[in-house]
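haha ok so turns out i had the wrong file open the whole time. this is the CORRECT one, sorry everyone. sequence first:
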Amino acid sequence: MASILYTAWAILNCMNNLIFKHLQASPTSCVFQAFLLSSSYLKANPKTSNPNVSKFFHIKWQPPNVNQVKLNFDGSVRNGMATIGFVILNEDGNPLFAANRKLGHTSVLVVEATALRDSLHTALLHQHPNLVVEGDSKLLTDCVQGRCQIPWRIRTLVNDIKALTLHFQSIIFSHIFQEANFIADRLALAAHTFTNPYVWFFCLPLLVSPAFQLNQLGEGVCRGFVF
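then structure:
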């Protein structure tokens, strides 16, 4: 009930800004305002009748340690067209490098593995020796860590990934929920609308801004949260 009220208040606030201040807001920004209000309320009122709720609410991106960088990658397939996106962030959560591109027609698992291989190669080229790697494909993470049998479709890609890991001083692989991987997710989705590959140094495209702000806020979201 509280989230419905916060959403209604955010929509009303956006309408008032448009009518009285001529400030136009996107639907995403309205939802984000509601999320901020809801987060503030829950932080100030942590008590709940269901003790299991909190562990599902605080899904969030965690910054790496000092002298490490974090690599988040993701893939997307829409109407058979595959795209990838990845970002390298420092201990303050600020972007060092980001990229996305189309791959053509392929499967979700292949696109995820390609995103990981390409992003590791980029991190190596940009001389980031201590790396924390996060993706939301549990199967791919298990394959790289040797916890399961590698599907034949990605066997060559996984071998390439393992070969690249040998060139880092330290590298840690972790599986995360999609809700903690929003920047890479938005980058991969954006590639569907681009004709050519894109790269960004020390910045991110505007359409990824809400995901970046969510990371910087550090409050966390519930499972299933979408922009």
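The two ends are 19 Å apart (CA to CA).
again sry for the mixup
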